[in-house]
Amino acid sequence: MSKTKKMDVLSRPVTLFHHRDEDFISLTDIARHRDTERGDYIIQNWMRNRNSIEFLGIWEQLNNPDFNSIEFDGIRKQAGLNSFSLTPKRWINATEAIGIISKTGRYGGTFAHKDIAFEFASWVSVEFKLYLIKEFQRLKDEELKQLGWDIKRNLTKINYRIHTDAIKNNLIPPELSGSQINFLYASEADVLNVALFGKTAKQWRDENSGQKGNIRDDANISQLVCLSNLENLNALFINEGLAQKERLKKLNTIAIHQMKLLVSDHGIKKLGEKK
Asked: How far apart are alpha carbons 256 and 124 in whole angstroms?
Protein backbone atom coordinates (compact mmCIF):
# COMPACT_ATOMS: atom_id res chain seq x y z
CA MET A 1 0.00 0.00 0.00
CA SER A 2 1.46 3.32 -0.99
CA LYS A 3 1.53 6.54 0.99
CA THR A 4 -1.92 7.86 1.87
CA LYS A 5 -3.32 11.31 1.18
CA LYS A 6 -6.15 13.19 2.80
CA MET A 7 -9.01 14.90 1.01
CA ASP A 8 -11.17 17.51 2.73
CA VAL A 9 -14.82 16.81 1.88
CA LEU A 10 -17.41 19.00 3.62
CA SER A 11 -14.89 19.57 6.44
CA ARG A 12 -14.39 15.82 6.89
CA PRO A 13 -11.06 14.09 6.14
CA VAL A 14 -11.29 11.25 3.62
CA THR A 15 -8.24 9.03 3.06
CA LEU A 16 -7.02 8.18 -0.43
CA PHE A 17 -4.15 5.90 -1.45
CA HIS A 18 -2.73 4.30 -4.60
CA HIS A 19 -2.87 0.50 -4.74
CA ARG A 20 -2.15 -1.76 -7.75
CA ASP A 21 -1.96 1.37 -9.94
CA GLU A 22 -5.50 2.33 -8.89
CA ASP A 23 -6.99 4.86 -6.46
CA PHE A 24 -8.68 3.52 -3.33
CA ILE A 25 -10.81 5.65 -0.98
CA SER A 26 -11.74 5.01 2.64
CA LEU A 27 -15.35 3.82 3.00
CA THR A 28 -14.90 4.17 6.74
CA ASP A 29 -14.28 7.90 6.40
CA ILE A 30 -17.25 8.30 4.05
CA ALA A 31 -19.52 6.37 6.44
CA ARG A 32 -18.64 8.76 9.26
CA HIS A 33 -20.45 11.49 7.39
CA ARG A 34 -23.68 9.70 8.37
CA ASP A 35 -22.64 8.24 11.73
CA THR A 36 -19.36 9.20 13.36
CA GLU A 37 -19.51 6.36 15.90
CA ARG A 38 -20.79 3.42 13.83
CA GLY A 39 -19.02 3.62 10.49
CA ASP A 40 -18.60 -0.16 10.22
CA TYR A 41 -22.33 -0.67 10.77
CA ILE A 42 -23.12 1.78 7.94
CA ILE A 43 -20.85 -0.15 5.55
CA GLN A 44 -22.36 -3.51 6.49
CA ASN A 45 -25.86 -2.13 6.10
CA TRP A 46 -24.97 -0.98 2.57
CA MET A 47 -23.38 -4.31 1.69
CA ARG A 48 -26.46 -6.35 2.65
CA ASN A 49 -28.50 -4.41 0.08
CA ARG A 50 -29.26 -6.44 -3.08
CA ASN A 51 -28.42 -3.53 -5.41
CA SER A 52 -25.05 -3.09 -3.67
CA ILE A 53 -24.29 -6.82 -4.04
CA GLU A 54 -25.15 -6.65 -7.75
CA PHE A 55 -22.89 -3.64 -8.24
CA LEU A 56 -19.96 -5.22 -6.37
CA GLY A 57 -20.31 -8.48 -8.29
CA ILE A 58 -20.43 -6.81 -11.72
CA TRP A 59 -17.43 -4.63 -10.84
CA GLU A 60 -15.40 -7.70 -9.82
CA GLN A 61 -16.40 -9.61 -12.96
CA LEU A 62 -15.18 -6.70 -15.09
CA ASN A 63 -11.91 -6.16 -13.22
CA ASN A 64 -10.97 -9.37 -11.41
CA PRO A 65 -10.16 -12.56 -13.42
CA ASP A 66 -9.90 -14.54 -10.15
CA PHE A 67 -13.33 -13.52 -8.85
CA ASN A 68 -15.23 -16.48 -7.42
CA SER A 69 -18.54 -16.26 -9.29
CA ILE A 70 -19.96 -19.39 -7.63
CA GLU A 71 -19.62 -17.91 -4.14
CA PHE A 72 -21.00 -14.63 -5.48
CA ASP A 73 -24.14 -16.37 -6.75
CA GLY A 74 -24.69 -17.87 -3.29
CA ILE A 75 -24.36 -14.46 -1.63
CA ARG A 76 -26.62 -12.80 -4.20
CA LYS A 77 -29.41 -15.34 -3.55
CA GLN A 78 -29.34 -14.52 0.17
CA ALA A 79 -29.30 -10.74 -0.32
CA GLY A 80 -32.54 -9.12 0.80
CA LEU A 81 -33.42 -11.76 3.41
CA ASN A 82 -33.91 -10.48 6.95
CA SER A 83 -31.29 -12.90 8.22
CA PHE A 84 -28.70 -11.89 5.63
CA SER A 85 -25.61 -9.92 6.69
CA LEU A 86 -22.32 -9.26 4.95
CA THR A 87 -19.06 -7.75 6.15
CA PRO A 88 -16.17 -6.56 3.97
CA LYS A 89 -13.94 -9.37 5.27
CA ARG A 90 -16.52 -12.04 4.50
CA TRP A 91 -17.01 -10.63 0.99
CA ILE A 92 -13.25 -10.62 0.32
CA ASN A 93 -12.60 -14.09 1.74
CA ALA A 94 -15.57 -15.73 0.04
CA THR A 95 -15.22 -14.24 -3.45
CA GLU A 96 -11.51 -13.26 -3.60
CA ALA A 97 -12.67 -9.72 -4.33
CA ILE A 98 -10.06 -7.04 -5.05
CA GLY A 99 -12.27 -3.96 -5.15
CA ILE A 100 -12.54 -3.72 -1.35
CA ILE A 101 -9.71 -3.88 1.17
CA SER A 102 -10.19 -4.38 4.92
CA LYS A 103 -7.36 -3.38 7.24
CA THR A 104 -6.96 -3.56 11.00
CA GLY A 105 -4.79 -1.49 13.30
CA ARG A 106 -4.18 2.21 13.84
CA TYR A 107 -4.47 3.09 10.14
CA GLY A 108 -7.06 0.42 9.43
CA GLY A 109 -10.56 0.57 8.06
CA THR A 110 -12.41 -0.41 4.92
CA PHE A 111 -11.12 0.96 1.61
CA ALA A 112 -12.57 0.54 -1.88
CA HIS A 113 -11.66 1.27 -5.47
CA LYS A 114 -12.85 4.74 -6.42
CA ASP A 115 -15.68 3.31 -8.57
CA ILE A 116 -17.07 1.47 -5.56
CA ALA A 117 -16.35 4.34 -3.16
CA PHE A 118 -18.36 6.77 -5.30
CA GLU A 119 -21.27 4.30 -5.42
CA PHE A 120 -21.17 3.93 -1.63
CA ALA A 121 -21.01 7.72 -1.24
CA SER A 122 -24.22 8.02 -3.31
CA TRP A 123 -25.97 5.74 -0.82
CA VAL A 124 -24.64 7.71 2.14
CA SER A 125 -25.35 11.19 0.73
CA VAL A 126 -25.70 12.47 -2.82
CA GLU A 127 -24.36 15.85 -1.71
CA PHE A 128 -21.33 14.23 -0.07
CA LYS A 129 -20.66 12.19 -3.23
CA LEU A 130 -20.65 15.30 -5.43
CA TYR A 131 -18.22 17.10 -3.15
CA LEU A 132 -16.09 13.94 -2.91
CA ILE A 133 -15.82 13.70 -6.71
CA LYS A 134 -14.98 17.39 -6.95
CA GLU A 135 -12.20 17.14 -4.35
CA PHE A 136 -10.88 13.91 -5.87
CA GLN A 137 -10.67 15.54 -9.32
CA ARG A 138 -8.93 18.59 -7.87
CA LEU A 139 -6.32 16.34 -6.28
CA LYS A 140 -5.81 14.42 -9.55
CA ASP A 141 -5.40 17.71 -11.47
CA GLU A 142 -2.74 18.81 -8.99
CA GLU A 143 -0.93 15.51 -9.40
CA LEU A 144 -0.94 15.87 -13.19
CA LYS A 145 0.47 19.38 -12.97
CA GLN A 146 3.21 18.17 -10.63
CA LEU A 147 3.93 15.21 -12.90
CA GLY A 148 4.30 17.50 -15.89
CA TRP A 149 6.71 19.73 -14.01
CA ASP A 150 8.69 16.72 -12.75
CA ILE A 151 9.02 15.42 -16.32
CA LYS A 152 10.42 18.76 -17.49
CA ARG A 153 12.85 18.85 -14.56
CA ASN A 154 13.91 15.24 -15.18
CA LEU A 155 14.51 16.02 -18.86
CA THR A 156 16.96 18.71 -17.82
CA LYS A 157 18.65 16.29 -15.38
CA ILE A 158 18.99 13.58 -18.06
CA ASN A 159 20.52 16.01 -20.51
CA TYR A 160 22.83 17.27 -17.78
CA ARG A 161 24.12 13.68 -17.38
CA ILE A 162 24.87 13.56 -21.12
CA HIS A 163 26.59 16.91 -20.75
CA THR A 164 28.77 15.86 -17.79
CA ASP A 165 29.69 12.57 -19.48
CA ALA A 166 30.98 14.54 -22.48
CA ILE A 167 33.08 16.68 -20.11
CA LYS A 168 34.45 13.56 -18.41
CA ASN A 169 35.35 11.87 -21.69
CA ASN A 170 36.88 14.88 -23.44
CA LEU A 171 38.01 17.60 -20.99
CA ILE A 172 39.24 15.90 -17.84
CA PRO A 173 42.92 14.93 -18.03
CA PRO A 174 44.03 11.83 -16.11
CA GLU A 175 45.19 11.99 -12.50
CA LEU A 176 43.08 15.02 -11.53
CA SER A 177 42.06 15.42 -7.90
CA GLY A 178 38.43 15.37 -6.88
CA SER A 179 38.37 19.11 -6.25
CA GLN A 180 39.80 19.78 -9.71
CA ILE A 181 37.13 17.59 -11.32
CA ASN A 182 34.38 19.32 -9.35
CA PHE A 183 35.72 22.72 -10.38
CA LEU A 184 35.70 21.70 -14.03
CA TYR A 185 32.11 20.50 -13.84
CA ALA A 186 31.06 23.73 -12.12
CA SER A 187 32.86 25.75 -14.75
CA GLU A 188 31.08 23.93 -17.59
CA ALA A 189 27.72 24.36 -15.85
CA ASP A 190 28.38 28.07 -15.67
CA VAL A 191 29.12 28.16 -19.41
CA LEU A 192 25.42 27.34 -19.87
CA ASN A 193 24.37 29.70 -17.09
CA VAL A 194 26.25 32.63 -18.61
CA ALA A 195 25.09 31.80 -22.15
CA LEU A 196 21.43 31.73 -21.10
CA PHE A 197 21.11 33.84 -17.95
CA GLY A 198 24.07 36.20 -18.38
CA LYS A 199 25.53 35.29 -14.99
CA THR A 200 27.14 32.43 -13.08
CA ALA A 201 25.44 30.41 -10.35
CA LYS A 202 27.47 32.27 -7.70
CA GLN A 203 26.54 35.67 -9.10
CA TRP A 204 22.86 34.64 -8.95
CA ARG A 205 23.21 33.47 -5.34
CA ASP A 206 24.93 36.73 -4.34
CA GLU A 207 22.06 38.69 -5.89
CA ASN A 208 19.38 36.46 -4.34
CA SER A 209 20.82 35.59 -0.92
CA GLY A 210 17.39 35.38 0.71
CA GLN A 211 15.87 33.09 -1.92
CA LYS A 212 15.76 29.28 -1.79
CA GLY A 213 16.97 27.10 -4.66
CA ASN A 214 19.41 28.00 -7.39
CA ILE A 215 19.55 29.85 -10.69
CA ARG A 216 17.89 26.99 -12.57
CA ASP A 217 15.11 26.53 -10.02
CA ASP A 218 14.25 30.17 -10.68
CA ALA A 219 14.02 29.61 -14.46
CA ASN A 220 10.73 29.81 -16.33
CA ILE A 221 9.50 27.12 -18.70
CA SER A 222 10.95 28.81 -21.81
CA GLN A 223 14.37 29.01 -20.17
CA LEU A 224 14.20 25.35 -19.09
CA VAL A 225 13.40 24.23 -22.63
CA CYS A 226 16.26 26.35 -23.98
CA LEU A 227 18.61 25.06 -21.27
CA SER A 228 17.79 21.48 -22.23
CA ASN A 229 18.75 22.26 -25.83
CA LEU A 230 21.95 24.06 -24.83
CA GLU A 231 23.09 21.11 -22.72
CA ASN A 232 22.89 18.79 -25.72
CA LEU A 233 24.62 21.30 -28.01
CA ASN A 234 27.41 21.95 -25.52
CA ALA A 235 28.02 18.21 -25.23
CA LEU A 236 28.29 18.08 -29.03
CA PHE A 237 30.68 21.05 -29.12
CA ILE A 238 32.83 19.45 -26.41
CA ASN A 239 33.04 16.23 -28.40
CA GLU A 240 34.11 18.28 -31.44
CA GLY A 241 36.98 19.76 -29.40
CA LEU A 242 35.82 23.41 -29.40
CA ALA A 243 37.44 25.65 -26.80
CA GLN A 244 35.29 26.91 -23.95
CA LYS A 245 35.45 30.52 -25.13
CA GLU A 246 34.24 29.54 -28.60
CA ARG A 247 31.49 27.35 -27.19
CA LEU A 248 30.24 30.11 -24.92
CA LYS A 249 29.94 32.51 -27.82
CA LYS A 250 28.07 29.94 -29.94
CA LEU A 251 25.75 28.95 -27.10
CA ASN A 252 24.90 32.56 -26.29
CA THR A 253 23.97 33.26 -29.92
CA ILE A 254 21.80 30.13 -30.00
CA ALA A 255 20.19 31.02 -26.66
CA ILE A 256 19.23 34.49 -27.89
CA HIS A 257 17.70 33.03 -31.07
CA GLN A 258 15.82 30.22 -29.28
CA MET A 259 14.49 32.46 -26.51
CA LYS A 260 13.05 34.85 -29.07
CA LEU A 261 11.12 31.93 -30.56
CA LEU A 262 10.13 30.33 -27.24
CA VAL A 263 8.75 33.45 -25.56
CA SER A 264 6.40 33.99 -28.49
CA ASP A 265 5.24 30.35 -28.61
CA HIS A 266 1.69 30.09 -27.23
CA GLY A 267 2.06 26.41 -26.33
CA ILE A 268 5.12 27.16 -24.19
CA LYS A 269 3.25 30.04 -22.55
CA LYS A 270 0.41 27.71 -21.54
CA LEU A 271 2.85 25.22 -20.00
CA GLY A 272 4.44 28.07 -18.07
CA GLU A 273 1.05 29.13 -16.69
CA LYS A 274 0.49 25.58 -15.36
CA LYS A 275 3.83 25.49 -13.56
From this structure: 60
